[in-house]
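Minutes, project check-in
Item: structure for the 344-residue chain
Input as provided by the requester:
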Amino acid sequence: MDDHRFEGTVRSKHIELPPDASGLQNKIHVRSAGQRSTPQQPTIVIICGLGSSCLSFTIVQHELAAADIPSFTYDRLGIGRSSPLLPVHDADAAGTETPRARHAEELAIELDEVLRIAHVPPPYILVLHSYGGVISWEYIAAHAENVVGLVAIDANSARSCERPVKDQDFEVLTENLPDGAFVYRDIVGLSAANRLPTALWEEWSEQRAPAEPWLHGVGGEEAEIRGCVDSCKALHRHALLQRHPLTKFPVTVVKGDTESDLRRLIDAAEALGGGTKTCREDLGRRLEGYSELEEDQQRDHLLLTDVGNKRFVKAKKSGHWVHIMEPELVVDEIVRMVRELENS
C-alpha cells in the first residue's frame, strides 16, 4: 500500500512540554489535518484509548479534511511517537522499576497543555475512543466551556470499572502457547480490515518501531493501566451526569461489538490449545449479558448533555476498534454533528 498517501493531508510534528519536576523536556507527537474556515468552526479533538497511538485515526482525519473539517490528535507521553516514560523505583511492587501510575486527571491536564502549546483554540468537538472517554470526562469537568459536542466511540465512562471481565483477564488464554501463536489483531479482524499504509499499520500494531526522526514512546500503556480503575471511580466526584455540563450541545455514542471480539479470543484459544478448558468456560460465562451492560454504561455519555441532540449508533461490522474497521461510520457521525452545529 502507498505509504505516502496521506502526505499533505495529515501533518505530524513534535511539540515540547515545559520541563517536568525532574527537569526533563518531554516531547509530544501531534497530528493535524484540515484548517478552520472561521474562528467559530470547531476543531475535532481526538482522544485515543489506553496505550494506543493516534496513528489509528489517520483514515478518519484524512476523510474529515476532505469534508473541510479540521482535526487534531496526539500521542500521550510514553505512547507512539512521544517521549518515553522513565521507570521509577516502586516500593509497593517489591522494589521493581516501572513507570509510575498516570491517572485520567493528569492526562486531561496534559491534553489541555498540548492544545495550548500547539495553538489549537476552542471550540472543540471531542472524539474519544475506549479509555479516552475517561480522560474526556476529566477534561470536561475542568473545561466544559471549550466543548460544543462529543462523539464517544465504544468509550469508557465512570461505571466501566464495574464490568464483569477486564482485558487482563484474557491473558490466561495465551498460556501453553508459543510466542506469536495468539495475535490479537489477527483474531479480532483488525489486520484484515486495516487500510492504513503499511509502515503506519506496522508501527501502530507495534510490529516495528517508528523511523527517524520520531521518538519511541514506551511505558505509557503500563502507567495508564495502573491508574485506570481508580480513574474511573474518581469520575463520580464530579457528578457530571447530574450537572449535564454540555447543556445544549450534541452527544453521539457509537457502540462497537466488543463482546464478539472477546468471544473470538476464547474460540481462538480453544482451537490453539491456549489456557485451560475451565478458564475458557469461566470467561464465556462471565461474558453473558456483557453487550447489554456495556450499552447501558455507554449511554451514560448521552447524559452529559441536557437538551442537546442525542444519538446512539451501533456499529454493524466492528468490534471495539470501530474507527479502524468502519472509519466511514465514525466520519459520517462527526460530519453530521458539525453540520448540525452549523445550522443551529
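Outcome recorded: The chain has a mean pLDDT of 94.
No further action items on this chain.
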